[in-house]
Write a structure and sequence with these properties.
Length: 274
């Protein structure tokens, strides 16, 4: 009799339990093959709306739709077994009212099989976060530099550079935590403020361009792999896949043009003899 080995996914309480314990390892992920590669090594994969730029060549995240998020969310859930999968709520799918947010978030959870959703905004979104979490939808918050608001903010600017800005950002963090979010992304927040917020709230803070003192970190996978020719300045690159892909394609093109491409019979005989 063979035993069925089932891998259990990381849960929301398990992510919460990282607070003051072990850093939470997070990366964005948009497709099944990379989900399989990341699965063993990260605690949480975010199907971020940054997929609009990375996968679809959009200029910003504002053109991303619920359908796009669901399509990529399904692929990442299929490609993984262990990590907790969180899917971003795109611009226009949650801001109008807690009820609209619930309807769309429930659709994301039901159609993708993901565990949680992420949405941008602090105090102004607290009521919605409370509405979702009290009805069974785990929410990851996102404060500081919130890309869906860059038209209003006038671009991508680090938040909290002056101490006068700190109280409002701290109030955002507290509001998100009090409303029941299980973690919160701190994006583009001045280092001492991100560290201060991390000490002040009871849920894990996940930094991106913030502070090493956060309870976890997240990066856009393609940025850290070297696929983005213009990554944000704070991104540490762990591979140079852009140049690697170009070199591989150059070698392939040379092989094809010089007819050095193995025919199918050669492949079989190479396998037999090799
Ligand atoms: O969309 C995204 O990838 C994100 C992360 C950068 C946090 O929100």
């Amino acid at each position: 009799m063979s035993a069925i080995v089932q891998t259990k996914r990381v849960t929301v309480p398990e992510i919460r339990a990282h607070k003051n314990a072990k850093p939470v390892v997070c990366l964005t992920c948009y497709h099944a093959h990379t989900a399989r590669l990341l699965d063993e090594h990260v605690d949480l994969m975010l199907v971020g709306d940054s997929l609009g730029m990375v996968m679809h060549g959009l200029e910003n995240t504002l053109g991303v739709t619920l359908e796009m998020m669901i399509l990529h969310g399904k692929a990442v859930v299929r490609g993984s077994k262990r990590a907790l999968i969180t899917v971003d709520m795109p611009f226009g799918s949650y801001e109008e009212s807690p009820q609209v947010a619930f309807r769309n978030a429930a659709r994301v959870i039901q159609e993708t099989g993901c565990t949680a959703v992420k949405l941008e905004g602090g105090e102004r979104m607290a009521e919605t976060i409370r509405y979702l979490t009290s009805r069974g939808i785990p929410v990851m918050g996102h404060i500081g530099l919130t890309p869906q608001m860059t038209q209003v903010m006038g671009g991508f600017k680090t938040q909290g550079r002056t101490q006068a800005e700190w109280p409002a950002i701290e109030a955002d963090a507290k509001a998100v935590a009090d409303a029941g979010a299980f973690s919160v992304v701190l994006e583009g927040i001045a280092e001492p403020l991100a560290a201060k917020i991390t000490l002040e709230i009871a849920i894990p803070t996940i930094g991106i361009g913030a502070s090493a003192e956060c309870d976890g970190q997240i990066l856009v996978l393609e940025d850290m792999l070297g696929l983005n020719p213009n990554p944000p300045r704070f991104v540490r690159q762990y591979a140079s896949m852009g140049p690697d892909i170009e070199n591989a394609v150059k070698s392939y093109a040379t092989d094809v043009r010089s007819r050095r491409f193995p025919g199918i019979e050669n492949v079989y005989s190479m396998k037999k003899t090799g």
